[in-house]
Amino acid sequence: MTITNLAELLSESHSDYVIYDLGRRVQAVQADTFKAICAQQRPYPYPLQDNAWFAVVFWPKLKAEQPEPFLWFLKIPLDERGLLNQAAQQDFMTHVIALLGQQITGALNAEQEQQLQQSAYLFTPSEAKRAALHAQLTQQWQKAPSRYFAAAQQELHSPTNDGWQQLGIQGIHDVAVRLAANSKTTQAIAQHFTSYPESLQNALAEALEHTTPPSELMQPLLSALTSEHAATRVNALRALAGFASDSAVEEQLRVLLPSASMDELVIITARLWPALQGQLMLPYLLRVAELNNPALFAGVVRDILRVPDTRIHALGLVQRNDLPVALYQAWQQFMGKTA
């Protein structure tokens, strides 16, 4: 059999695997979706900077116990249709097969490991995304959290002036993915989120943005969007990413948008893009245009047009003949520069 894409390589190597997106939010990509993406039957759903950024976690089938998995962090370019570039897939697979053959779950020696790491399609995620992935995998596989879990949980329950400085980032991510089973921790976060030290609040928001937190957290986070502190508003937006499709989030964003800052607008398109699939697209793009920052407008629009779920809404909007003047002018300037 001729192997034509990554999903086929994994299947033919008799591997079980899971796929996670690492571009926007660390989130699982269903196996059937991944197969369709690799076969160019559907666009990559979470593109970032014209690339698909994802983790392939795989291990040999038919083992009595799941062995230590293998892990590839892959950055594969997308074509103009948003499809996974076929030539890039082939290039990476050729490199792998030349090193390992089709049995990709074999142990690597030091020289093979070094040669594999030279691939142009491998990348190193941020520490936070590696921690989010590890937390999700251990939770999914019902393994114990890291040794930093208890200290992080304690600090979130009873924040101290300097205790957050000793926390391991992995512990915060372990707590975030296990909130559904820890109602007291959820209540503590709801109570203390806006008063946490900024560094702790930043780290917690960065962990929560890769999860769907318990519903009890949504209203306290929505309330935090009215904070007088800019950093708290941005962190609340990030932490709300898992609720982006909820109508209550859309309603609160509609209130926020007329005065939204550049940072807040960027977070919305980067993490809360599902909220822009309806009527929120107009006030969102209008606010971006009102800031009179052509570079910001161009960056935001390009990002929205790359994501399949928001592209159709944006293109439908800008074809209207009743656009607000600021938005019409910003769009015309954007189109003039991209023509």
Label this structure with key terms.
339 residues; 17 helices; alpha+beta; four-stranded antiparallel β-sheet
The secondary structure category is: alpha+beta
Helical residue percent? 40-55%
Low-confidence stretches: none
Share in β-strands:
5-15%
Shape: flat
Backbone CA Rg = 22 Å
Please state how the strands of the largest beta sheet are arranged side by side.
2-1-3-4
How far apart, in Å, are the first and last alpha carbons? 44 Å
The helix-strand sequence is HEEHEEHHHHHHHHHHHHHHH
Number of helices: 17
Main beta sheet strand tally, sense and closure: 4 strands, antiparallel
Mean pLDDT: 92
Number of strands: 4
Task: Produce a short descriptive summary.
The protein contains 17 helices and four strands.
Give your account of this protein's structure.
The chain has 339 residues and is of the alpha+beta class. The chain has helices at residues 6-12, 31-38, 86-100, 110-117, 127-140, 149-157, 169-177, 183-192, 198-208, 218-224, 230-239, 247-256, 262-271, 281-290, 294-306, 308-318, 325-338, and strands at residues 15-21, 27-29, 51-60, 70-77. A four-stranded antiparallel sheet has the order 2-1-3-4. A hairpin with a 5-residue loop joins strand 1 (15-21) and strand 2. The longest helix has 15 residues, at 86-100. It starts with 5 loop residues before the first helix and ends with a helix.
